[in-house]
Amino acid sequence: MTSLLNRLFGRPRKGSGKTAKDRLRFVLQHDRINLPPERLEEMKRDILAVIVKYVVVDKDRVEIALEQRDRNHSKIVAEIPVVKQTVPPSPEINMDSHENNSDTPVGETEDSVDEGKPADSDAEAAAIASDDGEDTDEGGNKNKK
Amino acid sequence: MGGKVVTVTSGKGGVGKTTATANLGISLANLGKKVVVIDADIGLRNLDVIMGLENRIVYDLVDVVEGRAKLRQAMIKHKKFEDLFLIPAAQTRDKMAVSPKDMVELTDKLREEHDYVIIDSPAGIERGFRNALEPADEVLIVTNPEVSAVRDADRIIGLIEAADKGPGRLIINRLKTEMVNKGEMLSAEDVFDILSLEIIGIIPEDEFVLSASNSGVPVTLNEGSRAGMAFTNVARRITGEDVPFMNLDENPGFFKRLMRFLDGR
Question: Which of A13, A24, A71 lies closest to B158 in CB terms?
Answer without folding.
Answer: A71
